[in-house]
Design a protein that fits this description.
With 331 residues, the protein is an alpha+beta fold. It has 2 domains: 33-142, 2-Layer Sandwich (Double Stranded RNA Binding Domain), CATH 3.30.160; 154-327, Porin. It contains 6 helices and 13 strands. Helix 3 packs across helix 4 (99-118).
């Protein structure tokens, strides 16, 4: 009889121990935080690095249950990453420069989900995976991803107005129409047409009187660019082109003197672009140009008067501002 009681006690002890283990396992699973339960599809090294960033960031220690249906895809795009997040049945995509930036963006989407859950608002379940895009298997998640080039030309067309000063003390103003194509996230090529007029506020045109100076130019350009937050970028570059100008002066006797010159020029510039509406950006920047002109053709007109100044100064530095139209993809 004593032996039977001891066996019954042993059975109860084993059952109690199993119940405790199951309960502790459930509690452990329930206490996993959000970074540990988010699904991540990426090459193994990048997946581990991304989860580590999330685990040490703002989501560390948060409730994991609202994040059970969230899924992140990380795919190489040029020099950065294309990040796709599926949460609450909604899919959204963004291109970023680094895994740290990707983690910050993912956190910005998951925080509202956690907040709604904390306040007792019902969170809709994620939409089922499309038949055309089945959920990745473990083998697919482990496999390295191929490098992806961003599709379609991404670029900007801009209309700018500039005001600058020449090395001869003259003040110039005029418009410029330019375009650029972003061949990668950091490299662009473009072209521009521009014109300028001497405002006669200072310099030779003001000193000599009745002098008109103007020029037109065309250039090809290239350079680099970088993001400024989520809504802007900075583009710097160099350019070369051709330029032609004319300087003329009318005398009281009705005789005109003029000088026509042409040549080439080099330029450098830095422009900051900030999105203010869909596909519309506000642009501001600085530029400098050096002109290399021929001796030109002169019409002396009134020989008693000194010839008019050169059609263009040898060097011009200017500030400019304008608007741009962004096309071919997200900024």
């Amino acid at each position: 009889m004593a032996a039977l009681r001891s066996r019954i006690h042993a059975v109860f002890a084993v059952a109690a121990g199993a119940a405790i283990l199951v309960a502790s396992g459930e509690v452990a699973g329930a206490t996993e935080d959000c970074p540990r339960v988010v699904g991540i599809r990426a090459p193994k090294a990048e997946r581990d690095a991304f989860r580590k960033i999330l685990s040490t960031g703002a989501l560390a220690g948060t409730d994991g249950e609202p994040c059970l249906g969230a899924h992140v895809d990380l795919v190489r795009s040029g020099d950065g990453w294309r990040v796709t997040l599926l949460v609450e049945g909604r899919e959204t995509t963004r291109e970023v420069d680094s895994l740290a930036a990707a983690a910050t963006w993912v956190e910005s989407w998951l925080f509202p989900v956690l907040e709604r859950t904390r306040q007792g608002v019902t969170v809709p379940a994620p939409a089922p995976a499309s038949a055309k895009e089945p959920a990745p298997t473990a083998e697919q998640a482990e496999a390295p991803q191929s490098r992806v080039i961003v599709a379609g030309p991404e670029g900007q067309v801009a209309l700018l107005g500039g005001m600058g000063f020449g090395e001869d003390g003259s003040a110039w103003s005029g418009p410029e129409l330019g375009a650029r194509l972003h061949f990668t996230r950091t490299v662009w090529l473009g072209a521009a047409l521009g014109a300028g007029w001497d405002t006669r506020l200072s310099g030779p045109a003001r000193n000599q009187g009745n002098v008109d100076r103007h020029g037109v130019r065309a250039s090809v350009r290239g350079g680099g660019r970088g993001s400024i937050g989520r809504r802007g970028d900075a583009a710097f570059g160099l350019g070369v082109g051709v330029v032609t100008g004319r300087s003329s002066r009318s005398s009281g006797a009705g005789m005109n003197q003029s000088t026509e010159q042409g040549g080439f020029f080099g330029e450098l510039h830095l422009d900051l672009s900030m999105s203010i509406a869909t596909n519309v950006s506000l642009i501001g920047g600085v530029a400098a140009r050096g002109h290399f002109l021929s001796s030109g053709n002169q019409n002396d007109g009134d020989a008693e008067q000194p010839p008019p100044p050169d059609a263009l100064p040898r060097f011009v530095a200017e500030g400019r501002i304008g608007v741009g139209w962004d096309f071919g993809g997200a900024r």
